[in-house]
Amino acid sequence: MAQAQMQSDPLQRILSNIRELGLNDNLVELETIGYTTIKAVLSEEQIERAQEAILSRVESTSGRKVDIDRESGEAIRGMTYLPYLLYDDPVFEEILMQQRPLALITYLLGESCLLSSLGCHFKGPGGNPLVLHSDNGNGMPVPFSPISQVANVNYALTPYSREAGALALVAGSHKLARQPRPEEMLLGDDNANPSANCMDLSPGDTVVWHGNTWHGSFARQIPGIRMNLAVYFSRQYVQTQERHGDTVPEDVLLRHADDDRFKTLLGAKQPYGWQLEGPDYALMARNPRGLYD
Fold this sequence. Notes:
Layout: H1 2-8, H2 10-20, H3 24-33, E1 35-38, H4 44-62, E2 79-82, H5 90-96, H6 99-109, E3 114-123, E4 130-133, E5 150-156, E6 167-170, E7 196-198, E8 206-210, E9 215-217, E10 228-234, H7 250-255, H8 260-265, H9 281-284
Antiparallel strand pairs: 1-8, 2-3, 3-10, 4-9, 5-8, 5-10, 6-7, 6-9
Helix pairs in contact: 2-6
């Protein structure tokens, strides 16, 4: 009876998975400070494949070869965002489905959550820091809901340090339920928010955070490229940044024909967006019924 109840209770199902994956301490950090780091999520082979795919995108669009160790800032200065990477290489499908980060995202956003976007903040020397902000955007009214509406997974694909242009987060900012004020956003050398914590990470490490949490990144001060993968998720009823759903390539669907979670992340159960055919009531009936589904 207890086993049957657990299977039918989404929260218990999610918590059981978190325990099995050894993430209880990470869950406490998510609740208390608004973010948590998971070490060595990606293998060296996955890191290399992701780097190669991202460099291929950059070089094909810019027409320039990029040296990720020696770039001076002449060819690549500051940060460029590379969107819609999921279909560039199957390695990004593997990264999307990494069990440990996805377990924490499921706790934050429920089993019906969607992939909102998957891209890279490709950063050369110089330029400006990315100021502190919450991913709730400018359209969400304040005070923000304490219930996460969106959430982020940030993978380091190159070493993170302050001089290398690392990610920065403000512990406890998710409980403030608002965007930072202008004077709280700053991450420059002389005026950085003193509460901003630099995330010193190795390639393959990842940080997961609540959608209310303030984050940004420092400017890169040394030669080379800082490369990440930002995998952004939303609740089922929140408009995604990228379009998936009926645009998912057939070969991708075939690779994941037996993976319902992958298909759900890409909108297979999303009932909205109909045209003359009207609503699909079978999908409507599968809408989430609570915080966890």
